[in-house]
């Protein structure tokens, strides 16, 4: 699509972006000037982004003060610009009486004035964000939800569903038994009185909430909890039960809900992957996508096909524009039709802020690529960023907004140059097809490592192979959605080819995700993102200046730039392959040696920085004389103590998956002398099958509280089927395994009577309390002492502290496995009593904020070195020369 009138030009900084001025008569013709990219709005957009980031985490009073300062600064800059515009009077000159007056040459703009104008533009954008954001903050906090949440009050709310219900897996039970959604408050009552309602709240509730129609008005009750700083929502409601529907969605949303539901019906007969993925590709409904397919999409960089992105809007707009052009519709008709279709698609996928953002970014990216005018697209993108931040300053903290902005900027700036560079080698169409995913992935990779400290190795080829199926899957899926309510048979007919395209995307994701090295571990945090960005830029420079690099290594390139494959190579295919490799070489010079040294130093630096993370996950950095290993099992626990060659004692087995079993395989553990399952939450027992497969377990020790009941029943059945003897732990129970001794310090605070029954013990029943029923285990080896605290809460930790302080000989240990993945519930007294040298925090990606700064600071304050599996991966503790050291972790 190329329609210059639909995308007005923006003049570039210091130089006109349009065609050069026509030469005056008699002057030689001048070549046209190259169009410069207008960057003037970019600093303003970045400044607006930073101010929105600060604003959303501050108080309304501070935001108001910032607005006042911004207003004063804007007034000062405006006054300076007005003063600079006053004409300067020079000496009087006589005007000739005869002849036409000479044209007046405009006074050139001075650099100082340009800088003043640029500063005024930046301050104006920041001020707009501050003013609008302050209004948002006042409106957000005018209600009483924040105050009631600070008190943990039980409330009754009335509001409308404004967020797509998402099923959440409970980490304690391992079951998908809760739903998270968002509610726009209309009424609020708490502490026996009505409170002013305003803003939005997150809702965490039972599965009954998943059946609510988008836009429905509901009444519900539950407990309010405070929101995290910087969240757009005012609080989180933990609902006490199912809601009462008090109002239907508005008619438009009612039609949309019907369309989406009928798409699910039309796709019911498709194969599993097609049935799961088609609603996500067409309308962003991910309710049928299972965890395995979701992980495959993440590992291959294909999550954008289900999260409605700018690409979906670009496909829809391009299709509509092509149809209008085929029908020879006038320009005005095309504009109106395209606008109506985009508005309808926004409603179809639900008008969430992320969808509105995607629509805007998709329009900018499509116009920028179609026109091939980055000089116009980039200032438009910057303006869109500023406008969106004014409308919703909380977008500044959204990773989706960051990725959309970065990807759009990369597409409008990088697609054309990359495609031009690739065209001589692979042809115009393949070059453009490869340039789009390549530029987007390279730009987004440093941001993605902040979310997941890994690099999707095959993201570019996976997107390239899957891309042809995205267009038919989206277009036919939307058509099936529109047709299904009125002509169900036609909806099914359209859903099948759309499902076939969706199946292809899922197959590509699974294929590339199963390849070796599909996700390359990379250091997380700002340091990892910066390192990847530097490496990416360095690689691009080397590839872009490959002729210069070839000259440095002593190879003369016998063909000119832009000519593609050399003539000798083409001839070699038909005649003699050896001709293709004939090249003249020159002797190495000092410059060559210096260049190679710099390149080698950069490569070595990146390798040294990333290598510990690469090998930590696989456990290859574990030395042969390890004493204790903390297995990286994600959000869960998995601790191994060495009891002999090929033997160990294991405390918990992590969540479902192969992580714990793989860790034992890497350690060469063929027999577990003792397997301790501190309690029955899924993040501590889910990986049991992988641990039991391929190795012998002499004995299992479990807590006496069967909570959750289903999980406890499954664990006991599995152990019984494998012939593993099971005992219920009791305080004082212990034993010796080679030169390692163990003792149960606490198991349920005395609430559960221990049993010595073997085979299948009887467990006490309770609804809740599993955390404080965790087994607290003391392990003593010839080199060190260790205490594993399970998931003990306040009561359990305080009881254990009293028990340890009453023991003769002191209670200090060398190593502590911190309770509950480093949650904020930590006993100051217990930490001081144990006074460990090393504190191990076993955690992974989670939505609970584990580990918390409170827990980390507490154990650091008692002199412990805190080591975290979410940063280190799998690591080992060793004792050499009577000193405790860590192997496999440099960034605890």
Automatic annotation (TrEMBL):
This is ComEC/Rec2 family competence protein. The chain crosses the membrane at residues 62-83, 115-139, 302-325, 332-349, 355-371, 378-395, 401-419, 431-451, 463-487, 494-513, 525-546, 592-611. The lineage of its organism: Bacteria, Bacillati, Actinomycetota, Actinomycetes, Micrococcales. It is found in: Cell membrane. InterPro entries: ComA-like_MBL, ComEC_N, Competence_DNA_uptake, Metallo-B-lactamas, RibonucZ/Hydroxyglut_hydro. It is a multi-pass membrane protein. It comes from Oerskovia rustica. Residues 283-546 form the ComEC/Rec2-related protein domain. The keyword Membrane applies. Keywords: Cell membrane, Membrane, Transmembrane, Transmembrane helix. Residues 1-34, 90-111 are annotated as: Disordered.
């Amino acid at each position: 699509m190329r329609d210059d009138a639909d995308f007005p030009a923006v003049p570039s900084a210091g130089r006109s972006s349009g065609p050069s001025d026509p030469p005056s008569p008699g002057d030689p013709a001048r070549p046209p000037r190259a169009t410069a990219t207008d960057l003037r709005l970019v600093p303003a957009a970045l400044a607006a982004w930073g101010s929105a980031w600060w604003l959303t985490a501050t108080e309304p009073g501070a935001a108001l003060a910032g607005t006042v300062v911004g207003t004063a600064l804007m007034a000062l800059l405006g006054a300076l610009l007005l003063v600079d515009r006053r004409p300067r009077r020079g000496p009087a000159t006589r005007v000739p009486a005869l002849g036409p007056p000479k044209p007046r040459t405009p006074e050139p703009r001075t650099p100082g004035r340009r800088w003043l104008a640029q500063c005024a533009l930046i301050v104006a954008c920041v001020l707009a964000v501050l003013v609008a954001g302050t209004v948002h903050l006042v409106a957000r906090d005018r209600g009483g939800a924040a105050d009631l949440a600070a008190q943990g009050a039980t409330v009754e709310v009335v509001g409308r569903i404004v967020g797509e219900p998402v099923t959440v897996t409970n980490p304690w039970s391992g079951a998908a038994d809760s739903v998270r959604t968002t509610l726009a408050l209309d009424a609020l009552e708490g502490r026996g009185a009505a409170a002013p309602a305003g803003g939005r709240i997150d809702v965490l509730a039972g599965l009954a909430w998943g059946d609510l129609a988008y836009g429905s008005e509901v009444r519900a009750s539950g407990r309010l909890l405070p929101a995290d700083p910087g969240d757009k929502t005012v609080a989180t409601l933990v609902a006490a039960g199912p809601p009462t529907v008090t109002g239907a969605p508005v008619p438009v949303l009612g039609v949309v809900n019907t369309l989406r539901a009928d798409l699910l019906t039309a796709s019911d007969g498709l194969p599993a992957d097609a049935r799961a993925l088609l609603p996500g590709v067409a309308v962003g409904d991910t309710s049928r996508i299972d965890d395995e397919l979701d992980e495959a999409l993440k590992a291959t960089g294909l999550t954008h096909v289900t999260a409605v992105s700018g690409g979906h809007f670009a496909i829809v707009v391009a299709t509509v524009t092509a149809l209008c052009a085929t029908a020879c519709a006038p320009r005005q008709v095309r504009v109106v039709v395209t606008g109506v279709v985009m508005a309808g698609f926004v409603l179809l996928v639900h008008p969430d802020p992320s969808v509105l953002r995607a629509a805007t970014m998709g329009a900018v990216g499509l116009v920028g690529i179609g026109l091939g005018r980055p000089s116009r697209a980039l200032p438009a993108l910057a303006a869109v960023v500023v406008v969106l931040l004014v409308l919703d300053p909380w977008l500044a903290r959204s990773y989706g907004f960051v990725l959309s902005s970065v990807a759009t900027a990369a597409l409008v700036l990088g697609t054309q140059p990359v495609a031009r560079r690739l065209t001589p080698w692979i042809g115009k169409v393949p070059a453009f097809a490869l340039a789009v995913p390549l530029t987007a992935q390279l730009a987004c990779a440093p941001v993605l490592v902040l979310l997941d400290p890994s690099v999707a190795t095959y993201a570019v080829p996976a997107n390239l192979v899957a891309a042809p199926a995205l267009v038919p899957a989206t277009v036919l899926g939307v058509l099936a959605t529109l047709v299904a309510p009125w002509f169900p048979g036609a909806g099914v007919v359209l859903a099948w080819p759309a499902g076939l395209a969706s199946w292809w995307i899922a197959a590509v994701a699974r294929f590339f995700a199963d390849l070796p090295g599909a996700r390359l571990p990379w250091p997380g945090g700002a340091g990892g993102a910066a390192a990847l960005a530097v490496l990416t830029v360095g690689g691009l420079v080397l590839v872009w200046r490959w002729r210069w690099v070839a000259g440095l290594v002593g190879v003369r390139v016998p063909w000119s730039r832009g000519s593609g494959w050399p003539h000798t190579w083409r001839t070699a295919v038909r005649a003699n392959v050896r001709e293709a490799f004939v090249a003249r070489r020159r002797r190495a010079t000092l410059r060559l040696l210096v260049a190679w040294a710099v390149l080698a130093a950069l490569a070595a630096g990146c390798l040294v920085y990333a290598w510990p993370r690469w090998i930590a996950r696989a456990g290859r950095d574990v030395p042969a004389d390890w004493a204790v290993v903390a297995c990286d099992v994600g959000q869960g626990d998995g601790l191994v103590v060495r009891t002999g060659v090929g033997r160990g004692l294991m405390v918990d087995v992590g969540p479902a998956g192969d992580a714990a079993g793989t860790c034992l395989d890497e350690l060469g553990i063929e027999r577990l002398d003792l397997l301790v399952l501190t309690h029955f939450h899924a993040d501590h027992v889910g990986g049991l099958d992988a641990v039991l497969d391929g190795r012998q377990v002499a004995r299992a020790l479990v807590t006496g509280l069967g909570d959750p009941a289903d999980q406890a029943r499954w664990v006991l059945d599995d152990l019984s089927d494998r012939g593993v003897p099971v005992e219920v732990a009791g305080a004082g129970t212990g034993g010796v395994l080679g030169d390692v001794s163990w003792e149960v310090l606490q198991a349920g605070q005395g609430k559960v009577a221990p049993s010595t029954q073997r085979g299948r013990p009887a467990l006490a029943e309770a609804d809740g309390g599993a955390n404080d029923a965790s087994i607290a285990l003391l392990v003593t080896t010839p080199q060190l002492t260790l205490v594993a605290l399970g998931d003990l809460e306040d009561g359990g930790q305080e009881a254990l502290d009293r028990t340890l302080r009453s023991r003769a000989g002191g209670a200090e240990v060398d190593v502590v496995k911190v309770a509950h993945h480093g949650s904020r519930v930590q006993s100051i007294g217990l930490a001081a009593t144990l006074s460990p040298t090393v504190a191990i925090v076993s955690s992974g990606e989670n939505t609970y904020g584990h580990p918390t700064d409170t827990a980390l600071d507490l154990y650091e304050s008692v002199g412990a070195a805190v080591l975290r599996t979410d940063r280190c991966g799998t690591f080992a503790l060793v004792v050499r020369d009577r000193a405790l050291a860590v192997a496999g972790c440099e960034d605890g």
